[in-house]
């Protein structure tokens, strides 16, 4: 900061206020417009990021108690088509045939999801259609 102030004092002696005022106003205008454009871009990016965040990352897993199992139900879709995933907090999973998820859409239609074992969890065999 001190170096800038000293350079301004040294080189500023040769400038007159009347001659440099127009240039300083032009530079100030460019800086203000650049900051405004950056703020608009950042706001747009954050709004789209919130939409993507809402679309791709869901609430915390739902915790369920099922036939003596402590399970969590979540939607897996990071880089893959959206599917249900069931994890066991104790590590023991129920049998695939004992588990199912049914979703009910606003129009009253139902969709049933079956599961398969996949990497220490149960994963739905069908994709979850949008919106979910």
What would your notes on this structure say?
The protein is of the alpha+beta class and 132 residues long. The protein folds into 2 domains: 2-56; 62-124, no CATH class. The chain has helices at 2-12, 17-56, and strands spanning 62-66, 69-76, 83-88, 101-104, 110-113, 115-117, 122-124. The protein has a 5-stranded antiparallel β-sheet with strand order 1-2-3-7-6, with no helix packed on it. A two-stranded antiparallel sheet has the order 4-5. Strand 4 (101-104) and strand 5 (110-113) form a beta hairpin. The model is unreliable at 51-57 (pLDDT under 50).
Tell me briefly what this model is.
With 132 residues, the protein is α+β, with helices and mostly antiparallel strands.
Write the layout of secondary structure elements.
Blueprint: H1 2-12, H2 17-56, E1 62-66, E2 69-76, E3 83-88, E4 101-104, E5 110-113, E6 115-117, E7 122-124
Question: Which terms would index this structure?
Answer:
132 residues; 2 domains; five-stranded antiparallel β-sheet; two-stranded antiparallel sheet; 39% helix
What count of domains describes the coordinates?
Answer: 2
Radius of gyration: 29 Å
- Spatial strand sequence of the major β-sheet: 1-2-3-7-6
The gross shape turns out to be elongated
The span between the termini is: 53 Å
* Tally of alpha and pi helices: 2
Helix coverage percent? 25-40%
Q: Mean pLDDT, rounded to whole units?
A: 82
Number of strands: 7
The sequence of SSEs as H and E is: HHEEEEEEE
User: Structural class of the secondary elements?
Assistant: alpha+beta
Largest sheet: 5 strands, antiparallel
How much strand? Answer: 25-35%
Low-confidence stretches: 51-57
């Amino acid at each position: 900061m001190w170096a800038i102030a000293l350079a301004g004092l040294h080189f500023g002696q040769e400038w007159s206020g009347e001659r440099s005022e127009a240039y300083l106003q032009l530079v100030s205008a460019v800086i203000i417009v650049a900051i405004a454009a950056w703020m608009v871009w950042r706001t747009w990016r954050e709004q789209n990021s919130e939409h993507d965040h809402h679309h791709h990352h869901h609430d915390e897993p739902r915790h369920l108690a099922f036939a003596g199992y402590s399970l969590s139900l979540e939607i897996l879709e990071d880089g893959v088509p959206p599917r249900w995933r069931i994890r066991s907090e104790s590590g023991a999973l129920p049998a695939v045939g004992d588990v199912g998820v049914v979703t009910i859409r606003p129009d009253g239609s139902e969709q049933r999801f079956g599961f398969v074992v996949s990497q220490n969890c149960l994963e739905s065999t069908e994709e979850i259609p949008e919106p979910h």
